[in-house]
Write a structure and sequence with these properties.
single chain, 2 domains, 3-stranded mixed sheet
């Protein structure tokens, strides 16, 4: 189902659920899009990329960038769904997907989707890392609940994505270079919330402190 370039189609599922139409990136083809239709129930989650762009990730892993702010996308899909329906009962996102997303093509598909990619590249001139510094409690393995306080920079991040088992509550992060000997870890914060903090602090501060948000619920879980 992930490889649109091979002509696969979606199973439309429940007939009572509205069909969503959009342009999705074709796997492996830059600036190439294919119109697809999928039932709304196939949506895994929606998220904010920045103030003007949001995204839809389907249950089969495909990510579709949308040229709408997060609140507007959520309203089109859920809150104001009846008003957004076309006469044939479809939620039409074709005009705000595909080429309409414009230059915002740092978006990757499926597990390659990387909200942290290529940010703060200009700040690394002369080997100096002036990017956002992030402090948070992390745990090193998916099921390990032993936490430690870690500080790392946004420029160090290779990618981040939802925890495969707790995608609504935790984020997995991989660093390009280790911080305090740590290169991969999990934080007890949803990916969309983490991305939102990065976006909001990047322009007005050099530090974002997530220690209170990601702190273990019980002090016995802390590993200092």
């Amino acid at each position: 189902m992930k490889e649109l370039g091979r002509g696969r189609i979606f199973n439309v599922g429940n007939d009572d659920d509205p069909l969503v139409e959009a342009y999705a990136p074709v796997t492996g083809q830059k600036d190439q899009f294919r119109k697809i239709g999928f039932k709304r129930e196939m949506i895994d989650y929606v998220f904010e990329i920045d103030d003007a762009i949001s995204g839809i990730t389907l249950a089969n892993g495909i990510t579709i960038p949308v040229a709408l702010p997060y609140a507007d996308l959520k309203r089109r899909l859920y809150d104001g769904c009846d008003a957004a329906l076309t006469p044939d009962g479809t939620i039409d996102l074709a005009p705000v997907t595909g080429k309409a997303v414009g230059e915002v093509q740092a978006v990757r598909l499926a597990k390659d989707f990387n909200p942290a990619a290529d940010t703060a590249a200009s700040a690394k001139a002369a080997g100096k890392d002036d990017s956002l510094k992030i402090t948070a409690y992390v745990h090193l393995r998916a099921e390990d609940r032993q936490f430690k306080l870690l500080t790392f920079s946004e420029a160090q991040m290779d990618f981040f994505e939802p925890h495969t088992g707790r995608k609504e509550t935790e984020t997995f992060v991989r660093l390009k270079t280790a911080a305090e000997g740590v290169q991969e870890f999990y934080m007890a914060i949803p990916m969309t919330t983490f991305a939102s903090y990065l976006n909001s602090y990047r322009e007005r501060s050099s530090v974002v402190d997530l220690s209170e948000i990601t702190r273990a619920k019980k002090t016995s879980d802390l590993k200092m």
